[in-house]
Amino acid sequence: MTRVPLEAIRDSFEGIMPSVIATTDASGIPNLSYLSHVHYIDGDHVALSNQFFSKTAANVQATGQATVVVLDGRTGLQHVLDLTFESSAQSGPIFERISAQLDVMASLQGKSHMLKLRAVDLYRVEDCRRIDPIAPLEEPPPKAVANRDLLVEAAAVTGELTRITDAEVLLDRSLELLDERFGLRHAMILLADGEGRKLTTVASRGYPHYGFGAEIAFGDGIVGIAAERCLTLRIADMRRGQRYVSAVAMASGLAREAIPLPAIAEPQCQMAVPLVAGGRLSGVIFAESEESFAFSHADEAALEIVARQLAASLALFELTDAVGETGARGAAASGAAVDAEPAFSFQFFPRDGGVFIDNDYVIRGVPGRLLHHFVRCYVETGRCDFSNREIRRDRAFNLPDFKDNLETRLILLRRRLEERGGPVRLLRPERGQIRLVIEGVPEIKVVEA
Amino acid sequence: MLEDDVAAFLSGNVMIIAATRDAAMRAHVGRGCGADFDPDVGDLTLLASSTQWPAFHANARSGAPIAMTVCQPDTYKCLQLKGQIIDVHEATEAQKARGQRYLDAMLAIMADLGVSRLQLSTVFSNADLVAIRFWPVDLFIQTPGPEAGERVRREP
After folding, report:
1. ipTM
2. What is the rounded distance in angstroms from the CA atom of residue A133 to the CA atom of residue B121?
3. Count of domains in chain A?
4. CATH number of the domain where residue A117 is located
C-alpha cells in the first residue's frame, strides 16, 4: 500500500477529534491512551507532547515504537501512523512552540502548573495508511470544495501592501485584505513598546469598538505570549478551555487605565503572529473567530506571510521617515480665541508617561510623553505644529535611533484621541508633520507619583 | 472479579478503543462497539468490527494480550483494562443486536455533545462484528490528570 503523505492529512492533526496512541511494553502487553495533539514537523516526522501518559513514555523507551490513529474531524476519515522514536527534547524550537501553545491553553484554563510541558518526543513516521471505511455511517464529502489557493491570495495581498506608501493606510488596509482575501473578519494589530513590557492596539477591524490604546502585557494570553517568545500561536478550539478568561479580563488587570480591548463575545479560535523585521519585534497581528477550527495550519501560514510583509513595510517607513523627512516649520499658534473656551484638566504622570484628561485615562508610555510635550509647548508658546524630526532629536522621549516606531506611535496617539472625541486632537497635515488641535484651555498638572 | 461500578461503567455508554500486538511487538488499534462483563464467569466480552480493524482483529487470538480503554465522552472519566484473550468468535445475533443498541445510543450521546455522524462515520462500525472474550487482569485509571496510569487493582 502506498504511504499517504503527511501533508495530505494535516487536518487530522488539528485536534478536532482526539487521536489514539498504542504501545507495548517489553513483554508485549499493549497500552492505550488518548492524545489531544499530534504535531506535524515535516513530511517524515511528528512530535508528541510528553505530559501525562507515563506508561506510554515507558513503553516507547523500552520498544522505541508507537502506533497512532488520527481522525479527520471534517471528513470522518482515519489514518494509522507507525512511529519510531527518534529523540526527546526539553528545549529547542519544536519544544518552545508546543510549550507556548500549552501555556496559552493553561492561561485559559487557569491551571498553568498542571499543563507544564516536560518534554517533546520526536518520531519518524515509518508508514501512514488510510483506514478504508468498510461501512461508513455517512459517505465522506466529495473532495472538499476546491479551497482557495491561499498562496495565490497571499501573493495578491502582499503585492498590494508593497504599493502602499503610508503607515496608517498600511495598517488599515492589511486588516481589510485579511478580511477580503482570507475571511479573517475579526483582527487587530498591536504595537510593542520598546521595553518588552506591553502591546497597544493601534488598528482593529470587525469589533464593536476600535479599542485604540488598549493594552496587553507581554506574556499574557495568546497575544502576550506570541510577543514575549516571538512565536506564531494558534488555538484551534477554545471550548477545551474550562474557564475562558477573555482577553478583556486579562487587560482589566491594568486597573483604572484599562481601555477595553476590542473583543467578540465568544471566541473559539485564535491566532497571533509576531511582527518581526530585521530580527526586531514591532508588534503582533491577531485574528479570531467564533467558530472552532476556523483557522487551519494553512490560514496560519497565510497570516505569517502577510505579517512579515507588514512588519517589513512598517520598518521601512520608519527608516525613510527618519532619514528623509522635512524640517519643522515651526508654525505659529493657530489657537486663537482661547479666552472664551472652557478649561479642562490635563494630568501627566512622568513615571509612566500616563495622561489623564478630565480624570479619564487617555494613554501612557511614549505616546503619552509626546502628547504632554505637544500640549505643554502649546500652553507655553502657543505652538501647534511639530515635526517627526524634532521629536526624534529630543532625548526626553527616549526614542532609540531608527528603531523608534515613532510613526506608528503617532498613529496610535492620533487614533486614541480621535476615538475619545476631543478636546485634544492630532492632525497630519503632511508627511512627517503633526498639528495639535485643542478645543478649550488645558490646565496642565504634572503628578510625580 | 471487577467491582460492580467498574462493570457497569464499561458496559455503559462509553467510547471504546482496544489494542492487540503483532510478533514484532507493534500495537494495532481497533475501536469497540460495546463491551460487557459476565459476573458469573468473570470475563469480559468486547464487540468490534473485524473488517474495519483487520490488523487489530488478525492479532486478537486466544492467549494474546489485549488492552481496552473505556471513556465517558462527557466527563473524560477513563479506565484501561488489560488482560489475556480467551477466544474470538463471530458475534451472535444477540451480540449483533447489542452492538446496534450501543451504536445508536452512542450516536445520540455524541450528537448532544456536538459531534456529528460524519465525524464518527468510521469510529462506530459494526460491520462483520466479532466478540473478543478476555480475562481482565489489570485495571488502571486513565482519566487525564495526575492519577492517569495509576493501577487500581491487579488479580493475584
Report:
1. 0.93
2. 8
3. 3
4. 2.30.110.10
